[in-house]
Amino acid sequence: MTEAFDAKALLATLTELPGVYRMIDGDGQVLYVGKAKNLRKRLASYFRERHPSPRIALMVAQIASVETTVTRSEAEALLLENNLIKSLAPRYNILFRDDKSYPYIVLTHETYPQLAFFRGTTDRRADYFGPFPSSVAVRESIHLLQKMFRLRTCDNPVFNNRSRPCLLYQIRRCSGPCVGLIDAARYAEDVRLAGMFLQGRQGDVIGSLTELMDQAAARLAFEQAAVHRDQIQSLRQVQEKQYVESGRDGDVDIVAAVAADGLTCVNLAMVRGGRHVGDRPQFPANAADSSPLEVLTAFLYQHYLAHPMPPRILLNLTLPDAEVAESLAAMTAVRVRVGQPRFTVQRIWVEMAEQNASLAITARRVALSRQEARLDELCRTLELDIEPDHEVRIECFDISHTQGESTVASCVVHQGGEMRRGEYRRFNIADIQPGDDCAAIRQAVQRRYERLSAGEGVLPTLVLIDGGSGQVGAAAAALEELGLSHLPLLGVAKGEARKPGLETLVFADARKPLQLPPGHPALHLIQEIRDEAHRFAVAGHRARRGKAGRSSRLDEISGIGPKRRKALIARFGGLQGITDAGVDQLTAVPGISRELAEKIYTALH
Fold first, then answer.
1. Structural contact between residues 375 and 525, judged by C-beta atoms closer than 8 angstroms
2. Is the pLDDT of residue 258 over 90?
3. Burial 54-83 (b: 16+ CB within 10 A, else e)
4. Helix spans in 402-559 (H)
5. What is the mean pLDDT of residues 451-473?
6. Dist CA 56 CA 58 (whole Å)
7. How confident is the prediction for the chain on average, in pLDDT?
């Protein structure tokens, strides 16, 4: 502890109510955020002579002040703690950066419901099944459902305008409801059975299909009986292939925390409807000196306050008490059982999750070693002066446009051996000569770093520009104007025929351009970052161009709303037809007065 901090005075003023505490250093930075049932007892545990780990001792030695917030319950404290951890990212809190939403299978509420992939916020306008660990698991399940129940997967605009069945009907993956090849009642029965299958009630589905097959055979409808027979066979094949099967209904999450080679991985495996549908390994930040149990506990709190929680969670480690389950149940209003496996199948699930976590650690260690080697080669080749224990931060810019239209600049960030997608930025470029890439780069660099010149943000170790000497010169001019000319700047000029491996590195200083061998590790790292900047810029440009394509010059005319625009297009077939029409012809459209017709004519000519 620092001399300025008086722990006894702090403890004397604390309450025994539940709440959240924030430990702050001398620079005003939050070191740690925690929750407590009893604030006084919890904080008192930090200020003893001996600490449970060197990490805690180091943190306590930096404390300059402690702020507390009292809550009405421990559940409220848990929610506030989680929000503060995400917003403040304290250096001593274990952090899981899992910003991806989990995908679902959706069955819409329509006369002929659609079976579809869904990612986003759920609502009451459809039935949602999941979540699933990956899009691959969802698409595999949809493929099975198409094969067994032949539900439509097309969107409504396609479905409502079909005049004949599509290819999916021909290959027996759809029953053709778009053209009336199946009545609503039979289709609804298929939807009901698909929902039962997704809930894990395979036995009930087989029983229902068997009954339907017998009924069809009794009335001599042998083709329909054969369809049900094929469905039953497909279901039995699914059950046989599912080598890890619960034998009962329900959803289960399996969470395994494993530490090895200086890394800790939490692997989340999912069982949906009794079927093991895959897993997702995650690596936390700030967990170097934390035990696997501490990491596991942090994951449970952070993950299930942001994602749906199943009624059962299996762990590979024993929690010291029931506090985690009670807190999650109180916060999410879901009755959940949290603990280690009791049955053979559950133990197999946990062992699989642990094995996959170990494999993920091995793969990550290999990837990190490769990234470190490439980064070391880059620093050596470019003669970058890197301070010890300082993470190299590389930011790369690229420009994308179509003949100068809808120009978008991208900036991607590489730090800590990985791409930091949460720190990517795009810039819509305006007020330049169309197609002037140099001016676009200058504007993007200036907008990106104008806050850095005021002392805000993080300085990059290296700035990469996808371009040659012209773009590098424009970026250098922008940095000099901002007082950041000391930042290392490098251009990546494409080689002959834009072939990878023939790039030329263009320096902003007096050094001669450099061409590295195609297999050079430093060049591979530069190419990876450059390609990611290009991908991000192209995606932004396409989105901006698509938005512009969906807009109309009619939208810019006051008095033209959706109804009048629709009436004009219906009458004249499109913008060109409206442009060719005279004032009298425009006036003939319902809702278009002569004054408005003259305004439209003037605006389009």
1. yes
2. yes
3. ebeeebbebbbebebeebeebbbbbbbbbe
4. 437-449, 469-481, 521-550
5. 86
6. 5
7. 83
* Half-sphere exposure in the Cβ direction for 466 (13 Å, CA): 27
Distance set, CA 175 to CA 146, 192, 378, 563 (Å): 9, 15, 58, 36
Place 548 in a pLDDT band, splitting at 50, 70 and 90.
Answer: low
Spatial contact of 548 and 430, defined as CB atoms under 8 Å apart: no
Residue 342's CB is within 10 A of a number of other CB atoms, namely 9
Q: Is the Cα dihedral 271, 272, 278, 281 positive or negative?
A: negative
Identify the H or E element spanning 8: helix 7-13
Closest C-alpha to 301, from 272, 336, 273: 336
Picking from 45, 16, 19, the residue whose alpha carbon sits closest to that of residue 33 is 19
Q: What is the pLDDT of residue 526?
A: 92
Q: Using the Cα atoms of residue 48, residue 53, residue 57 and residue 63 in order, give the sign of their dihedral.
A: negative
- The pLDDT, as a whole number, for residue 547 is 67
* Cβ atoms within 10 Å, residue 358: 18
Q: Which two tokens stand for residue 478?
A: 């922008």
DSSP summary character for residue 18: -
Q: What pLDDT, on a 0 to 100 scale, did the predictor assign at position 497?
A: 67
Give the pairing of strands 462-465 and 489-493.
parallel
- Report the candidate in 274, 296, 287 with the shortest Cα–Cα distance to residue 354: 296
Phi, psi of 412 (to 5 degrees): -115, 155
CA gap 238, 221 in Å, rounded = 26
pTM summary value? 0.62
pLDDT in tens, 122-150: 777 888 887 887 787 788 888 878 887 88
pLDDT bin (cut points 50, 70, 90) of residue 231 is low
- β-strand pairing of 393-402 with 462-465: parallel
CB 188 within 8 A of CB 176: no
Q: What is the mean pLDDT of residues 560-580?
A: 80
